[in-house]
Amino acid sequence: MDRQLEQTRDSWVNAFFTGNYDVLAAHEDQSFKVINEKEGISESSLMRYEKIAHAVKNGVWKPQKPNVLSEEFEFDHDLTECKITISLENEATIIQELWVFKEDWKIVELRFCKVNQRVKID
Q1: What is the DSSP letter of 67?
Q2: Is 34:46 a contact under the CB 8 Å cutoff?
Q3: Which of 28, 36, 81, 101 is deepest in the core (most CB within 10 A)?
Q4: Are the C-beta atoms of 98 and 108 separated by less than 8 Å?
Q5: DSSP class of residue 122?
Q6: CA separation for the pair 116, 121 (Å, rounded)
Q7: How far apart are alpha carbons 89 and 39 in whole angstroms?
Q8: Residues of the chain with pLDDT > 70: what percent?
């Protein structure tokens, strides 16, 4: 895996679990969105940051770390896009992260997929 992507992704994941929405914003593309296919929900960054800030302020931001079974990295031909597919233990959900490299790696989409419904990148 690209070392810069690995470092950026680690920073982004850590920022989520600690509730640091400023760091999240630094690693998320302006068009970033979270899609939950099972619940039919799509959420923008601004909405997420507000929810996270409110939860942190009230001391209730305690997201659970998932039990990861496997992670699969799929880069495009130019190595400027990477789709990361995460399979979880004992869960019927697949998580996909779509990252793009412009000047830095940025995440553009976080998708909670129904099992066996994965997005293909070109």
Answers
A1: -
A2: no
A3: 28
A4: yes
A5: -
A6: 15
A7: 20
A8: 93
In whole angstroms, what separates CA 114 from the centre of its chain? 16
- Rounded CA gap, 16 and 59, in Å? 15
Q: Which single residue is written with the structure tokens 């507000």? A: 50
Question: Per residue in 68-96, pLDDT tens?
Answer: 999 999 999 999 999 999 998 877 789 99
Structure tokens at 97: 């992260």
What percentage of the chain's residues is helix, strand, coil (to nearest 5)?
30, 40, 30
E strand or H helix that includes residue 68: strand 68-75
Output Rg (C-alpha) for the chain, integer angstroms. Answer: 14
Structure tokens at 121: 């990148």
Give yes or no for a contact between 116 and 92, defined as CB atoms under 8 angstroms apart.
no
119 closest CA partner among 78, 59, 72: 72
On the question of pLDDT at 106 being above 80, the answer is yes
Please tell me the distance from the alpha carbon of residue 47 to that of residue 21, in angstroms, as a whole number. Answer: 11
The values of phi and psi at residue 18, to 5°, are: -95, -5
**Any idea how long the chain is?**
122
As given in the structure block, the two tokens for residue 42 are 């799509």
